[in-house]
What does this fold into?
Amino acid sequence: MELPIVVASSTLASIIAAYVILKCKCALAPDVHKPNRPLIPKLGGLVILAYVTVSLALTGLGGLGINPTYGIVFYTTPIVLGVIGLVDDFTNVHELLRVGASVLYPLAVLVIMGNFDYLYFPIIGHFSNPIVVAILTIAVYGVFSNAINMMDVVNGVVPYSMILTSIIPLAYSIITSNVALLQMTLTLLVPSVVLFALNKYPAKLFNGNGGTYALGALVSGLILYSGLGTLILLVMVPYVVNGLLIVVSSRGIKSREKLKPSTYMNNYVIYPNLDEGSTLTLMKMIVIDEPGDEGKVVRGFYMLFNMVTALTILLFIVLYLFRWV
Amino acid sequence: MVKSALYLTVVSWALLLIGMAILGAIARVLGNPWLLVAVGIIIVAAWSVFVYGMARGLATKRVRRR
It folds into this structure.
């Protein structure tokens, strides 16, 4: 099916999903950073799942334009992890099961399909050894599907950063008329725009674990299969830094409820938690200079992502001019 | 407001880019995938230790100034 029809239908499905979630007022969670703690639906994951599922159903595995094995990994992993995340939104799924699924599912598809192709990362080069491809798949899916979930602490930051992440692959797919890459990029960009419209500060809809795991899987797929992995990784540096700080300071992968809070709130102003053993996060680094309300913290996160995106776009232009991408 | 976080992020970005450039240079000279994986792990480990140390240092410095 033609790409514009696929994109239009998938976008419509994602908007309908958002409308249904807002109308049904189910799976509500309190927005703890706002006065009166308003109850907000936390099923934003359905917006992503609706887009990816309709897009995959209309295109079919044969029409994806990339290696079929990688196509299956790219389009089905967000569905699998998104469903696990939605279950996690209702009943707590053990963190090892979540992390295990994010690593084992794409690996299982690679092993079962067995049709390995090379992976290309600008600046670094090609990887064609099947075991190295498997190791890279495990590392990227394991890190990013969880790193995005760790950053989803204030309104709007995750979908905003996903929109910025899409800029370089979108530009490159248009410049090179690469339809397969354009479709992959739109699969991340379009539901992120829909989600951002509703999740931006002050939020009407939360991404939920379903949304963050699905977005994490989509961005992991783009890192591995777009041929622009190095540049996407550089735009995602705030996620990597935040994940590193959390995992090291809390000595391992723990669920959000088991972490010692990195910040606390007084009169809706967010302060850094200076207690011994409190978790170190990027949000704590933001408020450690000057405490502020949620709006200020959100603008702080936006500034970090704007800066790394601007630097990476400059790098992309240089690499493109020298024909290194 | 975000001076410490911005500094940490930009330095991490630059160090990661340098690390990947080193990895790319080694890949062009040697070409052995296993050596590349080993060097990649060393670079990521060194980057992680440096970034975490810098974040801890920045946080401690800010707390002392309060």
Q: What stands out?
A: Chain A touches chain B at residues 121, 123-125, 127, 129, 132, 135, 230, 233-234, 237-238, 240-241, 244-245, 248-249, 272, 274, 280, 282, 284-286, 288-290, 292, 296, 300, 303-304, 307-308, 311-312, 315 (CB under 8 Å). The radius of gyration of chain A is 19 Å. Chain A has a mean pLDDT of 93. The CA atoms of residues 122 and 325 of chain A lie 6 Å apart.
